[in-house]
Amino acid sequence: MNPYITNLLILIAIYIILAVSLNLALGYTGLLNLGHIAFFGIGAYASTLLTQAGVPFIASFIIAGAISSIFGFLLVYATKKLRGDYLALATLGFNFVIYSLMLNWKSLTRGAAGIPGIVKPSFFGFTIQSNISYLIFVSVICIFCIYLMYLIVRSPFGRLMQATRDDEFGLRVLGKNTSVIKYKVMIISSFFAGIAGSLFVHYITYVQPNYFTLTEIILVLTIVIVGGIASLKGTIIGTFVIVLVPELLRFLPLGSSVLGPARQIVYALILLGILLYRPRGLFGRADLQ
Fold it and tell me: What is the pTM for the complete model shown?
């Protein structure tokens, strides 16, 4: 397989996990979380530091998700009284805090220099070296994660998530603790974001704070909105659309100084078009409040 295509498919698989996990909180529960990319970064750095300390990859992979879950719980706890725009601003601020820690805690993260030489995944005596092998590995993980999240949204708990989004007050009247539901959802959502971060850094074998900036938040949020709020299928298709369409610009005679801004313009045009003509996205089943 062409190395360029292999690289794109690996990144698409990772972003599918990340975007679907955001849709659990945003689409199915109504939590406007703009700090999701921070959990991605926490998982990336946690997995990196653990493997460099000699912890096996499988353990580092799971612990990275667990550490992200802890931060997800803390974020919900700190913002439990906020709703709507105020919640969005608070979670966005959380992302900036985590980014600042990554950038300035140099004794741990090496700051802007980043951490090179991250090991490839290794388990049961087998080390993944080639990109084709990594594509197979990340595809299996992606399918398994999607299946788990599908089971969650189709379960009785998944119906409680959607009821929290649609009528939180009514659900409280029925005696359900919506705060606990939000805690659980954010823990689950941030766990999957953390393991996506682990898969990302062990693929590129390098991590630095600039991978987890506002640009990445816009990218993942665009995927969810374009694919459709509260739609797993839509998020998967949206990931392919948002990742692949801007790649077409690489085949145009554009300089490197133009290519980056042009990609952002394409993201913006796609997002505006979807919001104007299909406010729920391609396959959305709920409105973005």
Answer: 0.93
